[in-house]
Structures are given as structure tokens and as C-alpha cells.
Amino acid sequence: MKTILVTGGVRGIGEAIAKIFLKKGYRVCVTYSKDEENARRVAAMGMETYRADVANEDDVVGLFQKIGGVDVLVNNAGVSLIKQIQDVSYEEFNRVLSINLGGAFLCAREAAKYMISNQSGLIVNVASVWGEVGGSCESVYSASKAGLIGFTKALAKELGWSKIRVNSISPGVIDTPMNAHFSGEEIASLIEEIPMGRMGLGEDIAKAVLYLEENEYVTGIDLPVNGGFSIV
Q1: Which tens digit of pLDDT belongs to each residue from 145-186?
Q2: How far apart are CA 186 and CA 183, in angstroms?
Q3: What is the pLDDT of residue 215?
Q4: Taking Cα atoms as reference points, which of 150, 122, 113, 94 lies closest to residue 6?
Q5: Spatial separation of the C-alpha atoms in residues 168 and 209, rounded to whole Å
């Protein structure tokens, strides 16, 4: 039985990814930081839940010691920050980068140790459309996701010789709790910019991750899953 680890996997995009692999018969491990209620809920579905701060090195090392090796790692845990640059503190900057990019680095590093010895594996980093084109008032978040795309491409070159594939997925506007702060008017305005005429769903991202798992000749790509939102 293959093992998949989805960070931030108890709700939203992470939960959707975890559920699709659970149906495929995988051993599914998910992390969370504070959301005990949703952790209990997905545990009842058959997932293994682990409380861990992906930006904390000791937590991540301990996490992999508990789980053991993983065949698929999905670096999904992340935080957003919507502020004009002049209002962003250095502490906030560091928090976003340490979770969105640092967390992916730590988890990929630990996962790679097993994958290299096994000469097999897949790492998927969940980036963002803003990592591709930049988002006004989300410069720090955009920087963290752009860094994640660059990290993906470099790591794909590095680990490909060990038969390990590394890809990223860049979701557009997805109907998740992270976007719950938008008003109905703001959502309608965003939808007007999406050629497919709707917000994305967590399941849309989950299907993309499944595609990357099933196609063994795809590596080093950033896969936009945004309904055409980033078309220029």
C-alpha cells in the first residue's frame, strides 16, 4: 500500500486531495496545526492525522519519524496575507515565507531521504496563480508561491536521477475557507475574470494531483488549475 502525506489536509484543498487518494486505497496521512475539530472529522473517514507546524524543523523531523517514508508528498499547508506592502511587518513577511516555502522545503527534505533510497516518489507543491502572475496587495504571498514554483523546478532536476518527480500546481480562485473573506460582490467580480465562469473546487485540484501521480513521465512543471484565469 502506498503512503501519501498531505500537509494542511483536514479541510479545503488539502482535504479534497486526501479524500481522492483515500478512495484509491492509499494510506493517507494529513497534518494540521490547530483545527482539532476537522482533524477528528477526517480521522473518522480513515485518515491518519498528525498535529505539526510545518515551519518548525523539529516538528517536521518528528512527523516523518512517526509516519516513516512516504511515496507521495503534497505540500499544501499555507497561509495568506492581504496587505499593502507599507503595512506588512517583517514578522508577517517571515511567517508567510517560513510556512509557505520553508515548510515545503522541510517536508521535501525529509521525504526525499526515503524516496532516494527507494528510487521512487512524487512531490507536489501547491503554489498559486499569484505565484505565476502576482497579486496586488498580496506581494508577500505571491513571493512565497513564486519561490515554491522555482523550488519545484530546481528540485525536479536534482531528484529526477533518483526517479523522483517534483511538480507544482497553481490553483486559481478556489471555493475554500481561505477565500471566505471575500464578499459576494468581490466573488462575482472575480468570476467575471474566469473564462470557465465559476470558482474552482477542491476536487479540481485533487484531480490534478491524481493526474500527476498517474503520469510517470511528467516532472518539473507548474500546472495551472484556474479555469483560464491566468490566460494573457
Answers
A1: 999 999 999 999 999 999 999 999 999 989 877 666 667 787
A2: 5
A3: 97
A4: 122
A5: 9
Write out the H or E segment, with its range, that includes residue 223.
Answer: strand 222-225
Does residue 5 sit in helix, strand or coil?
strand
Report phi then psi at 66, rounded to 5: -75, -45
What is the CB neighbour count within 10 angstroms for residue 189?
11
Nearest by Cα to 149 from 131, 164, 129: 131
Active-site residue, selected from the candidate residues 26, 32, 114, 141: 141
The residues, any chain, with a CB within 8 Å of residue 10's CB and separated by 6 or more, are 30, 32, 35, 38, 39, 41, 42, 49
Q: Report the alpha-carbon distance of residue 63 to residue 51 in Å, rounded.
A: 8
- Residues forming a β-bridge with 30: 6, 49
> Strand pairing of 3-6 and 72-75?
parallel
pLDDT higher than threshold 90 for residue 36? yes
Burial of 59 (0-12, 13-18, 19+ CB in 10 A): middle
Name which of 44, 61, 54, 56 is nearest 6 in CA terms: 54
Question: Which spans in the chain are helix H?
Answer: 12-23, 36-43, 57-67, 90-97, 103-118, 129-133, 139-159, 184-191, 202-214
> Which backbone phi and psi does 52 adopt, to 5 degrees?
-160, 140
CA separation for the pair 134, 88 (Å, rounded):
16
Residue 211 appears among annotated catalytic residues: no
Q: What percent of the chain has pLDDT over 70?
A: 97
CA distance 5 to 77: 11
